């Protein structure tokens, strides 16, 4: 499977993340799966005329293109010309290259939330008119249009995240190489369901504090980050706490709230990232699929039953109260 990787408007963080894959030789891992990385702007030796010749070969049909990966938002400005981002040495806007190459690819992948929805690049007044490949935030459209389908019949596959997890990228490419991704394997936002059918909340090490609604009040506290510090882990689709970053970490394990980086519009939540908006003391963003009345009743009951150990430790930066030692056998 031939893979071409282009970078558009963004920070390059998803490529940086890829370097933290579980194997130091991810290129070798791809080759073992039958995947040939034709070119990557940061990881390939080819440049200049060599790259231009490769791109033309793809457009001419001489080099088959199985997967087009785009990292970074697509910059349509000024005034729809795309001239804010011209592919070096070609004189052509990146958006023109992407549109044309997408028609040659069996699969088109948006690598990261900028390429998927516009992401941070499209935040604020968005002077560059940045968008995703097939979405403007949660609105279908983007650069290629809501009706776009690659030659495989699939929409743009959104491997969203800011940055995206290296495992999500490699597993998606390997699944495509094995012809194991079909329409039913993508969620409503065309994200691979192997990671998007999970919640960040799953596997969170702070779940005991969440269950008792024992909340942190400052970033260094051990308690749940949802009630006061802006954590959206109970709403966000990703497996960050079961597929750990670098094999051992996640945002919540490091003491940072989940800011919903795999979701469209995460860059402008309407409130400071480190604060939880509330109405009458109740968080606005409640856990997925949970009615507000149930949450209020459960939270009240949970807080009244919070053990001293959990309550004390929740607002400390280390374990103050240790678990009691009790016999576990019946006799």
Question: Could you please describe the fold and organization of this structure?
Answer:
This protein is α/β, with parallel strands linked by helices and 331 residues long. It folds into two domains: 2-194, 3-Layer(aba) Sandwich (Rossmann fold); 198-331, Cytochrome-c3 hydrogenase, C-terminal domain (Cytochrome-c3 Hydrogenase, Chain A, domain 2, Irregular). It contains eleven helices and eleven strands. It has a five-stranded parallel β-sheet with strand order 2-1-3-5-9, with helices on both faces. Strands 4-6 form a two-stranded antiparallel ribbon. Strands 7-8 form a two-stranded antiparallel sheet. The radius of gyration is 22 Å and the shape is elongated. The model has no long low-confidence stretch (mean pLDDT 94).
Give a nutshell description of this structure.
By secondary structure, the chain is of the alpha/beta class. It has helices spanning 13-18, 26-32, 49-60, 94-102, 113-117, 166-177, 193-196, 207-211, 226-229, 292-304, 308-314, and strands spanning 2-7, 36-39, 65-71, 74-75, 105-111, 130-131, 135-136, 139-140, 157-159, 278-279, 282-283.
Large-scale geometry: elongated
Provide the CATH superfamily of the largest domain.
NADH:ubiquinone oxidoreductase-like, 20kDa subunit
Order of helices and strands: EHHEHEEHEHEEEEHHHHEEHH
| DSSP summary, beta strand count | 11
